[in-house]
Structure formats: C-alpha cells, structure tokens
Amino acid sequence: MRLVIVTGMSGAGKSSVLKMLEDAGYFCVDNLPIQLIYKLVQLTFADTEKIDKVALGIDIRSGQALEELNEVLNYMNSAGYQFEILFLDASTEVLVKRYKETRRIHPLSGAGRVEQGIETEREKLEFLKKKADVIIDTSQLLIRELKAQIDKIYINDEKYNNFYITILSFGFKYGIPMDSDLVFDVRFLPNPYYIPELKNLTGNDSSVKDYVLQSDMAGTFLEKLDDMVTFLIPNYITEGKNQLVISIGCTGGKHRSVTLANELVKRLSRLEYGLKVEHRDIEKDSRRL
What we know:
By secondary structure, this protein is of the alpha/beta class. It is about 40% helix and about 20% strand. It contains nine helices and nine strands. It has helices at about 15-25, 35-45, 70-80, 90-100, 115-130, 145-155, 205-215, 215-240, 255-270, and strands at about 1-10, 25-30, 55, 85-90, 135, 165-170, 180-185, 245-250, 275-280. The protein has a five-stranded parallel sheet with strand order 2-3-1-4-5, with helices on both faces. Strands 7-8-6-9 form a four-stranded parallel sheet, with helices on one face.
C-alpha cells in the first residue's frame, strides 16, 4: 500500500499532480476533512487488494482544522501506517503571476493583497514542508516537466533529490532574469556573431559550439564554474534552499551563453539532483551589438 499526501502552496500545482496520479492508477481524494483522514487510511489499508495506491490532497482550504493535521500524522505514524508527503512550492512572484492570470482569489487574501495571503499561507504550511519527503518547486517547471518528475518518483520509484538546478542562458540586452541566484557574464569569450557563417546559428548548433569551446578561456571558465557550483550546492541545501537558478549571459543570448549553459548541464549531470537547461532569448531576432 502506498499513501501519498499531496500538499503545498495554493497555485503551485497540487490539482495538476492529483490528476497525474489519478491517471497513473492512484485513488485520489482532494480536500478531505482532516477529521476523516485517519478513517480513510484505516479503510484503504484494510483492503489493499482493491486499492493499493492512494493520494490525499490537503491544503490551506482545511482552515483551522489544518492545525489538527500534525496530530493526525503523528497518530498514523504510531499506528504503523506508512505515508509520504509531497510538498509543492513556488516563489511568491510566480504564485502572484498565476493568480493574476487566472483571476482567482487566494484563499487567505480576502479583500487584501494576494502577496499577503501567500505569505500567511507559507507560515501556516511550514510544519508540513518540514515533514515533507519530497519538495518540488514548480516555479520554473512546465507541466510536462512536472509530470516527468511525478512519474519518476511515484510511478517508476526512482530516487529523487529535493534540490533542483536550472541552468538559464540569456542576453544582457534583454535584461538579467529576475529569478537568478547566480549570474555569470561570458561576453569575454570570442563572439560567433561576427563570423558570417555562424551569425544566424545558435549555441545548439555544433559549429557554434565548437567555435566557442575552442577558446582556452571557455574551458577554464567551465572548470572553475563546475568546481564552485559543486562546492556551493551542499551548503545551499544545509541552509534549506531547494532550488538554484544559474544564469549565464552573453550579449544577445544565442551563441556563447547557450553553448556554456549546455556544457555546464553536461558536467553537472553526474550529480544526483534535478537538472534542466533553458535558453530564454535564443529565439529573439534583434540585432546583437
């Protein structure tokens, strides 16, 4: 019997995850009253021939009863019922944007500001986040990427590390990504833009990659960056951080930054962390300086 409690911030993707789990054969119940959780667990564990995978959605909608959840979870532990907690999170900036796009009202904001409701919710759910077996930050995840993570953990039973790294290439002429944790400037490298046959290509093309990486400076930069990031990650994890956005920029975000971002991902793939690469400005056609 596998019991997964799906919880987290409103707007972080809980409903989507429950749909994914339901499609994968989980018996899913959303917003079950806290007082009924233990009874449901008893019933499902007693009949595992019919139901062997259960997902319970719990969030801030439980209101004051949420304070009772900690006691219920402790009681389940003492009774020998095994369960996992999946906590879905996202940055306040992203959550506000999602609420504005959907024109929904945050459960705790009332007539006030959405940001205030989100911060209050964080405080009320902090005890669940601390208990979580898996924390997924959906700030930078597309639905298909979130599904890939859910399939990996709850369908394929693969090992999952709560720390997620996004390598993001960008063009300085379009601005530094606001969600960057670390920003690196690679405009010191030779620019393929001034090579006629490379100008209209990108760092995803082998000829551009070869041109950029033939510079000794590129290799040295990658070695030092790899070494620094490898050192930093365990320290970030110790401080409670669960995601890292590393932004690498060149002038227009098409050649050098794309090449270096791709190469850094290859190097970091040896680590047991969630990892993806994004190229924010690769499709933009404005002339680079």
